[in-house]
């Protein structure tokens, strides 16, 4: 406002100074330039004050929102703590189950190896028993043939 008054005074100023002498146009411009510079500074200061006021208002609003969120979090905190404890318990159980599964898989692998070895051993035993039976049957057959020959001779 003061700048407006200064500007109006400068513009409305006749080129006559206090002594009644006329000032040159350059003197008037120099005077106006100094006053304009001061006026521009005041305008800039007012603009900065308004910006500061706006930023302060926004900061207060943000602070209020933050405080409300803190209150909400404090209200939810017991629920969250309980939930976190439950999650931790579930994670521990899951890890224990995964360990059991790992052990079972290991045992299954061992059993598969044992089963394969057992099958191989079973085949070998069956082959030996078969050979032994065939050998014994041949011996029995020979014995019987010998007995038949002996009977036929008598």
Give an overview of the whole structure.
The protein has one domain (2-153). It is 91% helix and 0% strand. It has helices at residues 2-12, 25-153. It is rod-shaped. The termini are far apart. Residues 5-16 have low confidence and may be disordered.
Keywords, separated by commas or semicolons:
rod-shaped; 154 residues; Ankyrin repeat domain-containing protein 26-like; 2 helices
Give a nutshell description of this structure:
This protein has 2 helices and no strands. With 154 residues, it is an all-alpha fold. Helix 1 (2-12) runs antiparallel to helix 2 (25-153).
> Could you spell the SSE succession in H and E letters?
HH
Q: Which term fits the overall shape?
A: rod-shaped
Q: Please count the helical segments.
A: 2
Q: Mean of the pLDDT scores? A: 84
Low-confidence stretches: 5-16
The number of E-state strands comes to: 0
Q: Could you describe the largest sheet, including whether it forms a barrel?
A: none
Strand content: under 5%
Q: What is the subunit organization of this protein?
A: single chain
Q: What would you call the structural class?
A: mainly alpha
Distance between the termini: 159 Å
Helix content: over 70%
Q: What is the count of distinct domains?
A: 1
CA-atom Rg in angstroms: 56 Å
């Amino acid at each position: 406002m003061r700048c407006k008054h200064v500007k109006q005074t400068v513009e409305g100023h006749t080129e006559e100074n206090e002594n009644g002498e006329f000032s040159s146009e350059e003197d008037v411009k120099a005077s106006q330039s100094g006053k304009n510079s001061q006026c521009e500074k005041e305008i800039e200061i007012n603009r900065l004050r308004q910006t500061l006021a706006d930023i302060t208002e926004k900061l207060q609003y943000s602070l209020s929102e933050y405080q409300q969120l803190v209150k909400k979090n404090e209200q939810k905190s017991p629920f969250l703590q309980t939930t976190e404890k439950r999650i931790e318990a579930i994670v521990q159980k899951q890890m224990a189950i995964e360990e059991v599964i790992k052990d079972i898989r290991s045992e299954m692998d061992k059993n598969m190896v044992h089963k394969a070895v057992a099958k191989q051993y079973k085949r070998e035993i069956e082959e030996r028993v078969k050979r032994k039976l065939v050998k014994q049957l041949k011996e029995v057959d020979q014995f019987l043939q010998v007995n038949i020959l002996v009977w036929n001779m008598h």
